[in-house]
Design a protein that fits this description.
The complex is a heterodimer of chains A (115) and B (471). Chain A is an alpha+beta fold. Chain A has helices at residues 13-16, 40-46, 49-55, 86-89, 100-105, and strands at residues 6-12, 17-24, 27-34, 63-69, 74-80, 108-114. In chain A, a hairpin with a 4-residue loop joins β4 and β5 (74-80). In chain B, a hairpin with a 5-residue loop joins β8 and β9. The chains are: A alpha+beta (115), B alpha+beta (471). Chain A binds chain B through residues 14, 18, 20, 22-27, 29, 31, 33, 35, 58-60, 67-72, 74, 76, 78, 84, 87-94, 99-100, 103, and chain B through 49, 142, 144, 222-223, 225, 228-229, 232, 275, 278-289, 300-305, 317, 335, 338, 373-375, 377, 379, 383-388, 391-392, 407, 409-411, 446, 448-449, 451.
């Protein structure tokens, strides 16, 4: 078998990273921090603004912006209008959106691994 | 006592929100008492909504408006801190710092503290200098509609008032709305003599304040995710329930160059690791290259972290850019009434009965032509992650005989409308599916907040007043 052959396996984001949500008004930020620095590159390529927007689509966010912190390493996602009005106006149980980081951690990611 | 420590300023944070553990200060004071040199104890208890709520309390009684937890946090600690030479900085003045100062003065007398110097920092209340009409003309930070009349308008002050209070030899400083990190930055500017335009140092001090202002979020409390995060940590015992029940709240040991070691009392619960510090560093941050405060714009993309010992993380490399010309103002206004009610269904066919109850409510709402915004959830199926229109609930699958609770939430300016919806949930007890259990309801007045920007020159800035206790 060639060393370059790989097989795809599906993992959860929670398998390789932890995350924490914060809020300001109707805006949520979610930090995503890989347990191992070597997984940062994989996160950079897979955890795009588009994928995160899609993951939260049912709440109709208007935008997702990704910020890089290469030194840590970590990513910071800012998701606009995803909090159903935010802590002021939301009728839901989680106006602060504290559980949304765990929703993100449930995302499936496809990882290529050597056979 | 540990000589040679005078080059380090130690700041501990014993409350990260209004309602944080009232005995958390014990771990912080016990740590600080081991050392000589400048030491500070900080209580951050003033979220934007908390300020709006205290303002509402002050409207009912002009003698209120300070943090309802002022005594809970301060009474157990002021005598001990004064004896140990630990100064206290807190925003527990909320919307009535003057009254909070008077009460602390009485508290100090009752505790028999001689020569206690209390400083009150004010100037954040824009209604002292502007009319409501002028506030409403200020530039909005988003497209939120404001209700009228405005209940409050408070501009975020920076660290300058706290520095001035320390120059006046204050033992305790009580503020209203200042930026949260300023509670730590003020003491650091005072102790190290950092210049007003030493942006990198001001940024480093702001980062320290940002890290510790949420209390035990930095030392592992909100980090806990059993069976996951603790697998990779060396000190997992601190993250057990036993550990978290004995949380050590955070301490920053700051050097003149702005670098800081984050730590906690040895033997206390919790954890200070690269992971816990990273989570708190990015908490409520948008652009990490430009965290805007009244004192400086902090760039944390250059920050590096290093585990320098057990429960010790070295933080350094913050960069700063010149402070902004505009300051953020939080306004608050009446948000009407929020009502919530629920009923539970359990045992055989419970999910179908819970879904049926929701359908009956939807029909009743239609029949009444009820206009206010309503949200319906089935707790136990999907509720927390769902949106207001129940998108996930409609297709979610659950155990047919699980333990479910329907929840109705409604907001309206007319309280009778809120009461009507709650009465409809109660009526389901009889006029609904079988086996409804555990009706509970609540109704509460709501305050909304919004944000505007004001030119720095247009705001009059801080002012301080000093009260001296001579017991």
């Amino acid at each position: 078998m060639s060393a370059t052959e790989t097989k795809a396996s599906t993992i959860k984001l929670a398998d390789i990273a932890h995350a924490h949500a914060g809020d300001k008004g109707n805006r949520c930020n979610i930090s995503v921090i890989p347990y191992k620095s070597e997984d940062y590159e994989f996160l950079l390529s897979e955890l795009t603004e588009e994928r995160v927007l899609q993951h939260f689509q049912y709440r109709k966010p208007v935008s997702v912006k990704r910020y890089r912190l290469d030194n840590l390493p970590a990513l910071n996602f800012v998701i606009d209008q995803v909090l159903e009005g935010g802590v002021n106006r939301s009728l839901g149980l989680d106006g602060h959106g504290q559980s949304l980081s765990f929703h993100l951690l449930s995302m499936d990611l496809v990882m290529q691994e050597p056979c | 006592m540990n000589p040679g420590d005078n080059t380090v300023v130690r700041i501990g944070c014993a409350a990260g929100f209004a309602g944080d553990r009232f005995d958390a200060s014990e771990t912080v004071i016990e740590y600080l008492e081991q050392f000589d040199g400048p030491r500070y104890l900080m209580f951050e208890v003033l979220a934007e909504r908390t300020l709006a709520i205290t303002k509402a309390l002050q409207r009912e009684d002009p003698g209120k408006g300070y943090s309802p937890f002022l005594h809970s946090y301060l009474k157990p600690v002021i005598k001990r801190c004064h004896a140990a030479g630990i100064k206290i900085v807190t925003n527990a003045g909320a919307s009535n710092p003057t009254q909070a100062g008077k009460l602390v003065n009485e508290m100090a007398k009752a505790e028999g503290i001689a020569d206690y110097c209390i400083a009150v920092v004010e100037g954040d209340n824009l209604f002292e200098q502007m009319s409501e009409a002028d506030v409403l003309k200020l530039e909005k930070m988003d497209d939120m509609e404001f209700g009228q009349p405005l209940l409050s308008a408070n501009v975020y002050l920076g660290a300058a008032g706290i520095v001035e209070a320390l120059q006046a030899s204050a033992d305790i400083i009580i503020t209203g709305r200042v930026s949260d990190p300023a509670l730590a930055l003020g003491p650091l500017i005072y102790e190290f003599g950092w210049a007003q335009d030493d942006w990198d140092s001001l940024a480093a001090g702001t980062l320290v304040g940002h890290l510790i202002e949420c209390g035990c979020q930095l030392t592992g409390a909100t980090f806990v995710d059993p069976g996951r995060k603790d697998k990779d940590t060396l000190s997992a015992p601190g993250l057990s329930a036993v550990g978290i029940a004995r949380m050590g709240y955070p301490i920053a040991e700051v050097s003149e160059d702005g670098s800081a070691v984050i730590t906690k009392l040895p033997g206390s619960g919790g954890l200070v690791s690269l992971q816990t510090v990273k989570e708190q560093m990015l908490y409520e941050i948008h652009d990490p290259g430009a965290y805007i405060t009244p004192d400086v714009i902090l760039d944390m993309t250059s920050v590096s972290l290093q585990q320098s010992g057990v429960d010790r993380v070295l933080v350094k490399g913050a960069r700063g850019a010149a402070r902004p010309d505009k300051l953020k103002v939080t306004v608050s206004f009446d948000g009407g009434w929020l009502g919530e009610a629920g009923l539970s269904y359990a045992g055989s066919n419970s999910l179908a009965r819970a879904r049926f109850a929701i359908e009956v409510l939807e029909e009743r709402i239609k029949l009444k032509n009820f206009k206010p915004q309503v949200r319906l959830d089935i707790i136990g199926l999907v509720s927390v992650l769902d949106d207001d229109s129940g998108t996930l609930r409609k297709t979610a699958e659950g155990r047919p005989d699980g333990d479910y609770r329907i929840r109705a939430a409604v907001r309206a300016h007319d309280k009778t409308e809120v009461e009507w919806l709650l009465s409809e949930v109660l009526a389901l007890w009889a006029a609904g599916p079988a086996g409804a259990a555990g009706f509970r309801e609540s109704i509460s007045a709501q305050v909304f907040t919004g944000s505007v920007l004001i030119n720095r020159q247009a705001a009059s800035g801080h002012r301080i007043s000093i009260l001296e206790t001579n017991a």
